[in-house]
Amino acid sequence: MRLLPLWTLFSISLAWAGNIIVVNDDNFDEVVLNSDKTSFVKFYADWCSHCKKMIPEWERLADSYADIEDVQIVEIDADKSRGIGKRYNIASYPSIKLFRADSLSDPVDFNGQREYPHFSNFLSNQIGVKGRKVGPPSKVVQIHDGNVEKWIENKDRYAMLLFTKENDCDDCVVVKQSFDELAQAFHKELDKIIIGEVQKNGDEPTDWTRNSFHITEYPSIVFVEKGDLQSYEVINNISSADLLKFVNNKLGTKRAANGLLDTQAGIIPEMEIPLAKFVGINVVDRRAYVAEFIEFLKKVDDSIFKNEVKYYALIVNQFIAGNVDYVDAELAKFEKKLADKAVAAEEKDLVNMKLNLLKHIKTLVTDETYREAKDIMKEREEAEQLQKDKPLQKDEL
């Protein structure tokens, strides 16, 4: 039997995911503890949704430090490699620890947000070495004949497809950049839309997909209506702003280019007139109007405005209860929460939505809005009594 050099045997036992070293119970010590390198290690479980969510952020970190010889980005499925998980008391996933080359027996826990900037800042602060700057990974899905059914033929989801080819297509490069920005903006809306690219000269066959949409020119963009390959729209405006506006209109969303919500998010257009009346009148008339207001709210499409409808209903209850401090207290609470870096991006969407609506309500407040019911009733009783006590006119006799 031919003997292999030790380094060859060692390399065979390692698995790589891009610039990430994947280890297990058998080789963890060799890779992390005996390599004389600093290792930033993610302990994960393949069933963990939080672990799956941070995959692109972890990959981005690995790309950032790929050229730094003494630093390695490592991950281990501690649910399967339970010996290592038990050794380091891994009780939840993901758990992240830094094994510094000068202090391997005393790893440092990472407890920050599970996003690339926070990983990078933590690592550079701990070891004094910064990785190179890398942009976010593209969130554009690569579509081909083998996966078009999985990604596109979904009756609950729209699709925006860019058709490109590698050679003699300078415009393709420009539009791909716009699509990258579009996918970044709508990556939180994957349950509603897929942003995909179909490459003519890619590694996978795309003839059937391109023929289905009669693609003869590049770049071409089509919008597919909820899984129906026979119902699609050709898009001619291909600037980032135009694409963003188009998708927002189709989905009923309010995404800005940075992926956050714009200032109109949280405000239901068809409720503008009822809301202005509801907020602007006094509490007595408001209680009489609330049933009609709720009927307007019931007509709103809650598949598009699900969270908004819930918050409108909550605000209705607070106004009917006469809670005059509610809007200002909520504003203060959510402003503070929005500034908190520990709040996850998804939760910030909900916070932004609520803040927008509360700020809008402040513009609808009138002198009648917060008057006390007892003052209104007293005023009306006095007016009624005054009417009763008014002397009859000659023509009334």
From TrEMBL:
For this protein, the Enzyme Commission number is 5.3.4.1
What chemistry does it catalyse, as a reaction equation?
A: Catalyzes the rearrangement of -S-S- bonds in proteins
Span of the secretion signal?
1-17
PROSITE patterns, per this entry?
THIOREDOXIN_2 (PS51352)
Q: Which residues form a coiled coil?
A: 366-396
Gene Ontology terms: biological process: protein folding
Q: Which residues cross the membrane?
A: none
What do the Gene Ontology cellular component annotations say? Answer: endoplasmic reticulum
- An example Gene Ontology molecular-function term: protein disulfide isomerase activity
What range(s) does the Thioredoxin domain occupy? 3-128
Q: Which Gene3D superfamilies match?
A: Endoplasmic reticulum resident protein 29, C-terminal domain (1.20.1150.12), Glutaredoxin (3.40.30.10)
Q: Which InterPro entries match?
A: ERp29_C (IPR011679), ERp29_C_sf (IPR036356), PDI (IPR051063), Thioredoxin-like_sf (IPR036249), Thioredoxin_domain (IPR013766)
Q: What keywords tag this UniProt record? A: Coiled coil, Disulfide bond, Isomerase, Redox-active center, Signal
Q: By what name is this protein known?
A: protein disulfide-isomerase
